[in-house]
Write a structure and sequence with these properties.
Rossmann fold
Length: 221
């Protein structure tokens, strides 16, 4: 179990295990939350991202995603947690406290607005980190310059309102604990080819590359 007092050792352990040649030890998880929103969206996204990272970053994750609840102690077993959906999100006080402890102890969450999540997730993350505000990361940030280079920053994957994609972060004591993709639909691009007929293989590859950057950054920052 990940504990704040052992953050340095645990983070090092995550990195060693994720990139090791031994049998898979760690998993990537999708966040299950309350409020009625479709937390289960993008059903094929994470298995495809995991396979892409294992092939291209030489990570060693289990091939299937896990499901973890916000308030569960099991969240401390995952170095990378993914959250998506279109609708309402509600964190109880206990869930907000648990998520904060996970993130401040070395965890990382990627929140991916699947269109309609923004107005719900912002106040809930404010419950988690009342002292922090989301800041947009510039195109030259390291998160866009891992194994794959994105000189223009976060790529646009799925069109909704003809708005530019934005990547926001919550930064706690100099470390990104939460990365939030808005007007991008990154997870849509990770899904099986053909799930969204308008998304080409080129777009899908771009999304997977950006996802791999997130995983690499989360494990090594």
């Amino acid at each position: 179990m990940l504990l704040a007092s052992s953050f340095g050792l645990l983070a090092f352990s995550f990195v060693l295990s994720a990139f090791s040649s031994f049998p898979p030890t760690y998993r990537i998880a999708k966040l299950k939350y309350n409020g009625g929103g479709d937390w289960y969206s993008d059903r094929t996204a994470l298995p495809n991202l995991i396979a892409y990272c294992n092939a291209n970053l030489k990570t060693n994750f289990y091939p299937e995603e896990s499901i973890v609840e916000v308030g569960s102690k099991e969240i401390f077993n995952y170095p990378f947690v993914y959250m998506t959906g279109h609708g309402n999100v509600v964190f109880s006080d206990q869930e907000a406290k648990n998520l904060r402890l996970y993130l401040t102890a070395g965890g990382f969450i990627h929140i991916d607005d699947n269109y309609g999540l923004d107005k719900f997730i912002r106040p809930q993350m404010k419950k988690v980190f009342p002292e922090l505000n989301f800041v947009e990361l510039p195109a030259n940030h390291a998160i866009y310059n891992q194994k794959f280079k994105f000189p223009n920053g976060l790529p646009k994957i799925h069109e909704h309102d003809n708005k530019r994609p934005q990547g926001f972060a919550l930064i706690y004591k100099g470390r990104i604990v939460c990365y939030y993709t808005y007007e991008c639909d990154l997870g849509n691009g990770w899904e099986d080819l053909g799930t969204y007929p308008g998304d080409s293989q080129e777009t899908r590859t771009k999304a997977l590359k950006m996802g791999a950057n997130l995983v690499q950054y989360a494990l090594t920052q």
